[in-house]
Write a structure and sequence with these properties.
With about 375 residues, the protein is an alpha+beta fold. It has five helices and 23 strands. Strand 12 and strand 13 form a beta hairpin. GO terms for molecular function: hydrolase activity, hydrolyzing O-glycosyl compounds.
Amino acid sequence: MGVIPAQGTHDPRPTNKLFAAKWKHEHLRLIFICAILSFAVIVMFTSLLRGAYAKSVTVVDGGKSVVYQSRSTDVSGFLEEHNINVGPFDRISLSLASPLEKNGHLIIERAKQLSIQADGKQQVKYSTERTVGDALAALNIRLGDQDRVIPGVDASIEEGMKVRIVRVRTETIETEHPIDFAVVKQSNTQLAAGTQKVVKTGQKGVLVKKFERVFEDGKLVSEQIVDKTVAKPAVQQIVAVGTKKAAAPTTLVAKTQGGVLKLNGKTIAVKHKISNVTLTAYSAGFASTGKSKGDSGYGITASGTTVKEGRTIAVDPDVIPMGWWVYIEGIGFRRAEDTGSAINGKKIDVYYDSESRAERFGLKKGYTVYVIGPVKPTSD
């Protein structure tokens, strides 16, 4: 029998695949540790990079200060990043396109609503100014030198504030006023006592007054005199007053005896006596005759004479003949020169120059009249 040789131990040489698997197995832990370290380095590097590019921005919004972190490059992006709204009337210290700087400052001034009443209109405006005066100037609302603002221009602006502008206008006017002249009386021995005569006619002067008027929103609220000037002085009127004593008047005392009339001891023959005569008075004016000065026949009597106070009377020619003289108790001598439609019977109309005097005369009854004749008797 043959001899079978004993087999030795088989130790084949390892292949590359086995070698790699063995190396991986042996170094897997090391690989895992390296991966963790690499990730940590990346995270740390990213954080450092982020910190290097992050910006700190201080925002003052409506007086309140807040610090923000931002990676935005401009103001517009920063506002959008942090959802900060800026109204159309608000004001920011930087434009929206301005670059955002590290450790920068951004100030936002919030506009406040104002209700402004001026020139008859009410309008709503917005302003970021601090005072009323600055707000009106910024809104191009002009104020006159005398205009009033309620509240005042120095008042601080508050949300919803009501502002009223009162337009004030002052004007000066001049008016003319008459100045009465003074009347100076001077004694005159050539004039009879009780009579007066204008020697120099007076003339009124002119006083100019200057007024200052104040209007508020077109309405007059005050007026006062600021100056007075005599533009034309008055000229005094000079009147002469008579002091010459007149002769003592003859008192006519009528006494009848038969067909004569005795006056102050003088005897006057009379044709006849008429008792219970009614007296009235008239003038040449429109109220009595229906005529005015300048009219044809104005002042002319029915007998053709011109009326004269102290002489003319109107009578009924059937009772007293025209042109005859009479003596009326309490009145005196008069001449029958006129007639009238209402003068009938025992009625006599006594003439006066003044219409008012004739009206005041009224109606007088119970008078005695002595008919003398066509010739006026004298007292002597």
